[in-house]
């Protein structure tokens, strides 16, 4: 059959889409599914973009958001920041061109895909047909320039179409964008826009957000820490994280004339001496022009990288929140009975991409989620300080936390404990699982780090619960002593036909010492640090997370103490 | 601080990426994470592409796959199909251009993104630097032409670069592609390539796959059903599923001169009479040129669509596997004690996108997964007959199945029952959550349908378990009668000083009848169909899946019986 019917009319049916057309057809891939989620994603994209812009310019973020209700499921959103602004020539590229942006460098930033802002404009246009309105005030030389623009997205050509433009009298730098949306809703629920802002504040105590909600109520989320944010630096790729294909791409795009100078200029920890060693091992002429390198040669070089020892990647490009700040944030929001936090040392995944895991655990008080009057556990996932609200199921953080044997730490299970677990992954290249940036790929090294961090916190919680229990027991035993000893003494006095001695003071001393001895063992019955590490590695093995030896961090040279050290 | 340090050097730092460059940096978004998963995704992309091509041309798919091991984690994959082939001019566009393809029409196909094949070529090139080799044999008029090509992907320009080309003596149509991969591994595990093929066969009993694994072992997965696959048809969008932005896009791209003819030509169920009604309701001049329509007018028209009654979308574009076929597949692979399957009627999500849910439930035998000698439940997710292997957590299918109160159906819980649950969603537009196409967005209508289908199956399982239990009980009671009645009769005979009568035959009759009566009630104690629907709706309400009334299927006109009916 069907010999005559050819299924595809190639000239007619074969299409080439622009990125904007592709995402217009697949807006769920930008995270735009559901009315509540869509609005939360818009908040997420605009806030993270403002934070990134502010921090790169060394400015404490101060953001003003106003959400006005026009009609049922129809809103106007006005979002204003105090960042460095966007030069006029780039405004429409930032907001209307997909896969364009300044986030493709090897720098720690919340955004990294060049999709977020243009996605918001796309959603606005798709649901309302209304143009975007932007005021951008930016420095040009010593002057502050201002421009007010109105534009639409030309989806067929992945670019903006300017509709109106006028000069704007600028006083200070910053961007204000106004967008309209239909088919979205504002919600106070866990996945709604309000909760998103609240969680953002835990990860960003240096920021300030003023939010006027659709009822006109004004919330001011005050800056908790007046710390000038450290500016993240662009870091060059580390040889251990570079693939042959990366080398080929570098060779294509370099302005260096020789392979040698390309290698030293494009990677961290790569000296002339190192290049000479590689030349010797591989026999490759390092004076070749970069464009003449073959894939096989690139592979040979990467093979050397794997065998050589290098200093760990520079980590001054990574700026964690810091365990003190996380503790402050969690205490302020959760009023827990117990809280413990940790910021681990930087390590790497995929061989050479550095990352830092930070974690916090709060117990009791308002920790956890309230479900039918019972408090259950709650996981707060963050990446580069940004709350991850959706797609928890497939995320490295969820996977790591669920894989821990919580019984080992004296908890029945993870679900039914009044716990809030906070995990933040800091990296110049967070491996997001999808364009919606809501979950982190479960790379083995990342899962391992989260497990280790969390297990250390769990051990602290166990100590806390144990000493609480011990204190209770102590009290109980004290009562036993204090109730019965007097009786014994009195009866003994009667039997001995003598007077009752003054025993109260002595008894108090004895019970304290006796109990300390009795309970001391239990309280001190702690696993030593090395033993703990052994337990961790053992659990780790059970989970099957064997770390590729070539890729493990064991292969790095020891480095100076100042470098790569963070408070723990 | 930092007044002089502007963070971004716009001219230097602002980049515009091609789709290929974007996915080169974010290959995990194409599903390429982990060595095992990456290879499975390659199999997935090539197999689904071949199936789609064959079916569109009305050909029974017959695929030959050979995986050769070159070295540790280094393989050559040769994939050959008997499809209609790709015309020479389109070969490099199919394999090297991202966001290009023939899958953007409103037609049921496994692929729909124009990313799959080019993603495989990208991964091959990134890991090995080797070119792709393709032989394509295709019809041109009555002649079969053949071409052999070797090409690379030009990532910077999102296109192919031809390296070699020669004529190939073609006998029959089809495509053979050979790619090399490093850093991938072949595995027999649940998420490995072999299991992927096995599951594919459940969803595609009309296909045949021959697979030679790296050890040289040849597996032939034989065609289970020699049914010529029905060719899916391109269906026009239904008015209930169209947005104002869709109308604007249609207006931009139409070749019609008037709005009226554009509307009737671009949508299903849209007659001249209907357009006149809309004109009357909205006051819009339907003789306008399409390009003159404003967004507000488009909104007004969509508003009318929402209020009007239309016949349900045509569903001859949807080709389910069929409950018989699913049952055959599950029996063959699982040898279950009990199996039940269902193919539901077509319904719609997002107002007007039709879809069909098919489900199967197998119990006992080899159903479920074996975990430490215990059999646990297993969920097999499919979309347009393609197995979904990863990202189960956030998928509509997982969400629906986990939300069912399994205790209602006599099961302890979902996890610890030896069950295999199969769910397939058929649609011209499956709302995938990510570019890796491994999970379906939990649209409320889709979740509802999966729940309803599965609950009906669960009810069947409950009946089966009950009658099994009843049969056991019956046997037990029969024994009681048969053991004790003779004793009573004999003792009675003794007391009455008379002989023991011939009671065996009578007893057998009595116990059968008596027990049938005793147990009959229990066996028949079934919930009627309407009552079941009430239970379903009640559970549904509890879950908070209120279906938007405007979007529900209640608003469709009744249609002829022939239309949209599938075996159930």
From TrEMBL, chains A, B:
Domain Histidine kinase/HSP90-like ATPase: 34-157
Reactions that this protein is recorded to catalyse: ATP-dependent breakage, passage and rejoining of double-stranded DNA
Pfam family, one: HATPase_c
EC number: 5.6.2.2
EC class of the enzyme, as a word: isomerase
Gene3D superfamilies, alphabetized: 1.10.8.50, 3.30.230.10, Histidine kinase-like ATPase, C-terminal domain
SUPFAM superfamilies for the chain: ATPase domain of HSP90 chaperone/DNA topoisomerase II/histidine kinase, Ribosomal protein S5 domain 2-like, S13-like H2TH domain
HAMAP family: Top6B
Function in brief: Relaxes both positive and negative superturns and exhibits a strong decatenase activity.
Family: Belongs to the TOP6B family.
Protein name, UniProt field: Type 2 DNA topoisomerase 6 subunit B
Taxonomic lineage from the root: Archaea, Methanobacteriati, Methanobacteriota, Methanomada group, Methanobacteria
């Amino acid at each position: 059959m069907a010999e005559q019917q050819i299924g595809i009319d190639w000239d007619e049916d074969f299409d080439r889409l622009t990125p904007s057309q592709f995402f217009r057809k697949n807006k769920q891939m930008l995270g735009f599914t559901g009315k509540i989620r869509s609005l939360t994603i818009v908040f997420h994209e605009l806030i993270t973009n403002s934070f990134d812009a502010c921090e790169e310019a060394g400015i404490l973020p101060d953001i003003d958001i106003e959400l006005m209700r026009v009609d049922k499921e129809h809103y106007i959103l006005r979002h204003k920041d105090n960042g460095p602004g966007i030069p006029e020539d780039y405004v429409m590229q930032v907001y209307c061109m997909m896969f364009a942006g300044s986030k493709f460098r090897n720098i720690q930033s919340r955004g990294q895909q060049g999709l977020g802002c243009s996605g918001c404009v796309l959603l606005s246009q798709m649901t309302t047909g209304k143009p975007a309105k932007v005021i951008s005030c930016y420095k040009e030389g010593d002057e502050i320039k201002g421009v007010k623009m109105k534009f639409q997205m030309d989806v067929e050509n992945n670019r903006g179409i300017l509709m109106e433009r006028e000069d704007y009298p600028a006083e200070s730098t910053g961007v204000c964008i106004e967008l309209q949306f239909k088919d979205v809703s504002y919600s106070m629920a866990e996945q709604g826009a309000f909760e998103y802002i609240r969680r953002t504040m835990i990860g960003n105590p240096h920021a300030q957000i003023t939010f006027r909600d659709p009822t006109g109520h004004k919330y001011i989320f005050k800056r908790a820490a007046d710390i000038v944010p450290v500016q993240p630096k662009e870091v060059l790729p580390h040889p251990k994280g570079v693939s042959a294909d990366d080398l080929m791409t570098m060779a294509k795009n370099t302005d260096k004339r020789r392979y040698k100078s390309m290698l030293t200029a494009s990677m961290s920890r790569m000296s002339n001496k190192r290049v000479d060693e590689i030349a010797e091992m591989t026999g490759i002429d390092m004076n070749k022009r970069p464009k003449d390198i073959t894939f096989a040669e690139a592979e040979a070089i990467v093979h050397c990288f794997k065998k050589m020892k290098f200093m760990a990647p520079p980590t001054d490009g990574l700026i964690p929140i810091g365990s003190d700040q996380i503790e402050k944030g969690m205490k302020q929001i959760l009023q827990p009975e117990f809280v413990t936090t940790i910021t681990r040392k930087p390590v790497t995944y995929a061989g050479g991409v550095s990352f830092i895991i930070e974690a916090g655990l709060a117990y009791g008080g308002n920790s956890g989620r309230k479900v039918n009057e019972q408090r259950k556990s709650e996981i707060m996932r963050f990446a580069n300080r940004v709350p991850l609200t959706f797609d928890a199921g497939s995320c490295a953080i969820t996977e790591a936390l669920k894989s821990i044997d919580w019984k080992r730490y004296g908890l029945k299970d993870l679900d039914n404990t009044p716990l809030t677990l906070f995990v933040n992954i800091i990296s110049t290249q967070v491996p997001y699982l999808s364009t919606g940036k809501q979950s982190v790929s479960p790379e083995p090294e990342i899962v391992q780090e989260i497990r280790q961090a969390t297990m250390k916190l769990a051990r602290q919680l166990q100590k806390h619960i144990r000493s609480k229990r011990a204190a209770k027991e102590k009290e109980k035993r004290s009562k036993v002593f204090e109730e019965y000893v007097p009786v014994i003494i009195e009866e003994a006095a009667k039997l001995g036909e003598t007077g009752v001695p003054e025993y109260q003071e002595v008894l108090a001393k004895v019970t304290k010492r006796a109990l300390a001895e009795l309970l001391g063992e239990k309280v001190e019955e702690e696993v030593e640090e090395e033993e703990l590490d052994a337990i961790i590695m053992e659990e780790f093995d059970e989970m099957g997370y064997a770390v590729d030896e070539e890729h493990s961090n064991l292969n790095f040279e020891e480095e100076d103490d100042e470098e790569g050290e963070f408070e723990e």
